[in-house]
Design goal:
By secondary structure, this protein is an alpha/beta fold. The chain has two domains: 162 residues, 3-Layer(aba) Sandwich (D-Maltodextrin-Binding Protein, domain 2), CATH 3.40.190; 115 residues, Periplasmic binding protein-like II (D-Maltodextrin-Binding Protein, domain 2). Helices cover 42% and strands 18% of the residues. α2 packs across α9 and α4 crosses α11. The longest helix is centred in the last third of the chain and has 21 residues. The radius of gyration is 24 Å and the shape is globular.
Length: 327
């Protein structure tokens, strides 16, 4: 009897102190999909493919970039938000889809703060203001004067209503009190193509999509939206240094980051964050981003999440004052 009670006691003791064994998540084991909510060829597409290649090199799994464009990127973002939270569908998030859209679309089908889990802040990219060579201006000061003496004559393209390019240009219009006609496209690439062809006269969008056209002489760069000049093209001045009243301190950079559907395992998020951050600190990756005018932003998911919250608050009054809507 004593032995039986002793054994029972020992069994209870072992059970009470033993820690449950939690199986480590084996990830990834199959192809990962990164949804880019814009057409191929634009800044988010270029960055997604670059990051995807690095994820493949680090994990051995294939990364497929899927472009789902439309409605300023919100169609693709919604598709990602509704995907299984298993780490195999990610979104190349963007200031437009994660920070601007809530103020532009009254019936947005997703909530940037509730539908997604931040994974990694990838890069900050300045917008480059460029015009067709036929536009008779060489700098921002001349451009503003030209716009004021020719109201409505210049058309500018963007990746769609509520896109980052739309917002940045409307912000510029507000500050300079100029009138430029907006022509929305289903993505950045077609707007740049039409600017090169002279169908529209101006674009103000992410550097990776503009720099090749400027270097080839197909577009004329006027200014960048960042506080400092780009290292890759230091001859292009900032808007803030233009001398135009109201542009002091002007800043309207784009930013990009990877988010996953809410509910994605924290372990998977941690693994992805580690892989992406490691790739962003590689010398060849840093050089590649710099060549495209981008700055790598390796950090934690929490810091990226805070950025999204801050940017939603920052752009809301701009959207309201510029009367930007999805219609």
């Amino acid at each position: 009897m004593f032995i039986s009670k002793l054994l029972a006691f020992l069994v209870l003791l072992v059970c009470s102190v033993a820690k449950p064994v939690v199986a480590e998540i084996v990830y990834p084991t199959k192809p990962i999909r990164i949804i880019v909510p814009f057409t191929p060829g634009g800044s988010p597409d270029i960055l997604a493919r670059t990051i995807g290649q690095k994820i493949t090199e680090a994990t051995g799994v294939t990364v497929v970039v899927e472009n789902i464009a439309g409605a300023g990127g919100t169609i693709g973002a919604d598709r990602a938000a509704k995907a299984l939270p298993d780490g195999y569908t990610l979104l190349m998030g963007h200031v437009g889809t994660l920070a601007v859209a809530p103020s532009v679309y009254p019936h947005l089908p997703y909530d940037p703060l509730k539908s997604f889990t931040p994974v990694a802040w990838v890069a900050r990219v300045p917008n480059v203001m460029a015009v067709h060579p036929s536009v008779p201006v060489k700098n921002v000061y001349e451009l503003v004067n030209y716009l004021k003496t020719n109201p409505g004559k210049v058309n500018y393209g963007s990746g769609g209503n509520g896109s980052a390019a739309h917002l940045a240009t409307e912000y510029f219009k507000l500050v300079t009190q100029t009138f430029i006609v907006h022509v929305p496209y289903r993505g950045t690439a077609p707007s740049v193509t039409d600017a090169v062809a002279g169908q529209i006269q101006m674009v103000f969008t992410g550097a990776p999509a503009i720099i090749p056209m400027v270097r080839s002489g197909k577009l004329k760069a006027i200014a960048v939206s960042s506080p400092k000049r780009m290292e890759s093209m230091p001859d292009i001045p900032t808007l803030a240094e233009s001398g135009v009243k109201g542009l002091e301190g002007f800043e309207a950079d784009q930013w990009y980051g990877i988010v996953a559907p809410v509910g994605t395992s924290s372990e998977i998020v941690k693994k992805l964050n580690h892989v992406i951050n490691a790739s962003l600190t590689m010398p060849e990756m840093t050089a590649r981003l710099k060549a495209e005018g981008a700055t790598a932003m390796p950090t934690t998911p929490d810091v990226f999440g805070q950025l999204i919250q801050n940017e939603i608050k920052r752009w809301r009054p701009v959207v309201s004052n510029a009367k930007i809507s999805a219609d």
